[in-house]
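Q: How would the structure tokens look for this protein?
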Amino acid sequence: MSELQAGPGCVARHAASLRVADNMSSRVECVPVTATLREVARMLAEHAISCLVVLDGDAPVGIVTERDVVRYAARDPEVWASTPVRDVMSHPLHVTDTSASVADVIASLAEHRVRRLPVLTGQGRLAGIVTQTDLVRAAHHHLQSYAAELERLIGERTAELRESERRRDDLVDLTVHDIKNTICVVESALDMMGLDPVGAASYVPLMRRAAQRIGHLVCTLLDVSRLDSGAMPLRVQDVPWASLCEPVLAETGLMAQAKSIALNRTGESHTIVRCDPALIERVLLNLLDNAIGVAPDGSTVDVHAECTPDGGFLVRVGNRGRTIAPDLLAKLFRKYAQGGESVVKRFGGWGLGLTFCRLAVERHGGTIRAISPYVDGEGAAFEFVLPAEQK
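A: Here is the predicted structure in token form.
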């Protein structure tokens, strides 16, 4: 059971799912229609049972109970023992069949105001008998199973809620951390402007970049949620790779210049890429932000693009900084997780950027992965592939 719903209807649903063939008593004692009540009483005592099915040949025609025998004996104590069972049995006989559900039997017992029903096969042969006691036992067993399953589900949901709360707290911590760092950059720039009013204009790009990072952070929060739920539609277009790549390179160029990092663009340039331009631009922006942020001063960050043999399009963004441990590579794209304190520091404390990249690429039907080491035993690269056709 993947989900349980409490309420009166749940019992009826469970009863409808139970088969009478699995809950009947297959041991049925029978007497011929010509038997006497003395023979009936002896069989009831010998087998310690409360009823017998009466047969006319092989066909069930009635049912006789301890209560029937006692009532008849009390009414006519002198001749009861020799009385034929046909004069005492309950008839017409109400029956059910092996394909019926427990719910069907419960309804039939209530309709005919009886406590037991013989169960027949599809060919009309006697297969067993089901009583109120059998139904109570079956209901008790399955309600126990239901209660155990409900308890398990409650435990799972409770654990999920606790995990959700923990992730929310982590998300708040990460968001505060990233915004605080950006605000520190702005405050530092304002301090420098106060000390050097003449050169204040040179700090404007830095402050603008800080404001953009906060805006980018808020958009990522919203888009990760929408992509994760499948609520963000793709606006697929055919666009030249250069028209996607060049604006992002220009935007990240200032940050690269501040660290004397060279942006090395190679591979395809004018290839037509079928994608949602806004999403793929932001994927590239995220990857370049990460690469520039962890790359050593004076090093190179590569942006390479090529067509794959199956008609897809591959993009790789690589840096020559520190390597990423193999056991952390698969964790980098998980929501709310950076794979350890060292990765948190190296990737600016913000894990949703890479999660956004994964969700956006997968929304196109593509794949993304991390590669480390990247060049000469150093650095790391992030590589995504867009398929030839998006569904």
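Residues 8-139 form a domain with the CBS-domain fold (CATH 3.10.580.10).

Confidence is low (pLDDT under 50) at residues 336-350.

Upvote if useful.
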